[in-house]
Structure formats: C-alpha cells, structure tokens
Amino acid sequence: MFSWLGDPIHRGVVLDVSSDGFDMGAATSGSIFIDDDSDNIFLFYTGAQDAQWSHTAIGLATSKDGVKFQKVGEDPILEGSPKSFCHKEALAPTVTRMRNRFFMVFTGKPSPQSFRRLGIAYADDPKGPWQIIGELIRPTYLWEGRDIDNGLSLIKLSEDEFLIFYSSITSPKVYDVFTILRRYTIRRIGIAKVKIRGTSTSSIEVYKSPNNPLKHLNGQKGSWNESLFCPGYMQLSGRHFLFPATSTYSIGFPYKQYLGIVSSDSPHFPKNRCHIEKLIDGPSEKYSIFPSIKGEIALDTPSPMIKKDMLFLYYSVADRANEVWKVALTTFNI
C-alpha cells in the first residue's frame, strides 16, 4: 500500500435504505461534495425503489462529521420527467460549483430498452431545486460498448471547465466480435472534458478521445484489476489520485471485487507516469466491512474526501445474498 496511508479502519454502513419511499430498495453511489459556503458535508446518492432498480432517482444526505448522515427529506432532489433522458434511471451523481451555480453530472436511462448515457443538471443551491439541462455524452466508440456509467468525482480545471471519468458497463456493440468471443466483460475507464458557458445544451461543449485513454490501468485476465469502473478522484500535495472499483468478471459470478488507488503527477494518468495498487480487498475484508454479510461482497463507486489528516473513502457495498446496495465508509490515517 502507499506508504503515506495507514491501515484501513472500516466504519461500516453510513447510509442505509429507508423503510419506505424512493430509496427503500437501494441507497447507494454516494458522492461527497463540500461547499465553502456551508458547514455541511453533502452526500448525493442514488435511491432505488426496489432491489431490481425498476426506477432510480437522486437523493441527498448531509453530515457535520462525515460519519453520521441525515437524509434531506423523504423525496428525491432530482428525478427524471417522462420526456427526459433519465426517466427510468437517474443515478451516480457528482457535483461541482462553477462560479455561483452548482452542476451535477450523472448517469441516465430513459426507458428499460434504452442504454445508459451521461447527463447534466444545475441548481443555485446544493439542496436544489435541480433543473435537468439534458444529455451530455452517450457511448459512440467501440471500447465503450452500448452503455456508459459515471464516476463519482470530477477534476475542476477552471471556472468553466472540468474533467469527468466514466466507464463502459457490460454489453458489447453487436459488431464487437472480440468482446462476443471473449465471453466475459472487461470494463474500462475513459475521460471527457466539459466546458460550460451557460445552462442550455447548446452552451455546453464535451470532448472525449476516440481511443480508450486509461486502458493501461487494466490488468491481465484473472487479476484484481482485470476490469475497472466508476472511479473517484482527489488531489493531495500536488499528486493526483484515482480510486477505481475493480472486478474479475472472467471467473464468473459471484465476482471478486476490490477498490484500487492510482497515483500520478498528471490528472490524465498517462501510462508511464502512474502507479496502481489494491486498496481494499473485498473477499478478504468483507466481514470487517459488512459484519452481517451472508454471501459474497459487491463493491462499487468510490468517492474520497480528506478531513483532519484522514482519508475518508465512501463506496457502494452490497451483500450478494440480497443485492441491496448501501454506502459504506473506510478511513485511513495520513
């Protein structure tokens, strides 16, 4: 492990499902946001009405200490309207402040038969009301497959530009012969640059590379980082750190899943200037993370925060015995 990090301290589930409402089936994909004008730590999260995720929306919880969270109301703060790109699913949010407005990038899906893509919304306050601007990017390149998913952090470059990390999901394009013959999924991470001049789709520009810019982070078949997806990001002491979720899909279900850490002197994490290591070993640490677990552990969507010389790492966790996703916390002394 990186020498500047202490041993992990697993704090358990910090955001659970509700007994009723839009997040009774899942309360997951928690993305941390800190605004200089507020004493609160904001945790934007995905709520699902059932374990099958027949409908998802975005909720908000707040905290003073980063450990005890209180949900803001019983209703979602963002939910897709019938004609929106996120009518069936609105999930995996990440938020930033650009001048006097707040912008949220998130994953959306309009119908059960459609594919996932990324979209954007804005608000004048983190608690909303949030206005959906529209679709931001959709999968267009072979490596992306049919669906893409959002990572729960972004890199703010200026007051009108930021980088987002996103990942391919599961299903290949019909003409991707190599993926079909391989018979198992390989998820990869991509980077897109977003430039915002206003709150309409015509005033937002997005650039992404046709090649997979971070494919060098994927390990060999059967390795802990065989597939990478939905990373978090932070900057510390002039270094850039990426926190991907990883999985070995080639071994079959239930997949072994982990959380990793990547370090680089560049926010683009180029091949010869970055280093990747395993940070949390799901199979060997599952009882410490989730003491009541019955089956294998599932991990996803890390989101980091530095507070009082500690790394707080929030991530999605589920027991494969019931597939109910929640948000857990592990801390590391720095």
Structure, described:
- The strands form 5 sheets. A 4-stranded antiparallel sheet has the order 1-20-19-18. A 4-stranded antiparallel sheet has the order 2-3-4-5, with no helix packed on it. The chain has a 4-stranded antiparallel sheet with strand order 6-7-8-9, with no helix packed on it.
- The model has no long low-confidence stretch (mean pLDDT 93).
- It is mainly beta.
- The chain is globular, with a radius of gyration of 18 Å.
- The protein has helices at residues 177-182, 282-289; strands at residues 9-15, 26-34, 41-48, 56-63, 70-71, 89-98, 101-109, 117-123, 131-137, 148-156, 161-168, 189-196, 204-208, 227-236, 239-248, 256-264, 274-281, 297-307, 310-319, 325-333.
- 4% of the residues lie in helices and 49% in strands.
- The chain has 2 helices and 20 strands.
- The protein has a single domain (9-323, 325-329), classed as Tachylectin-2, Chain A (5 Propeller), CATH 2.115.10.20.
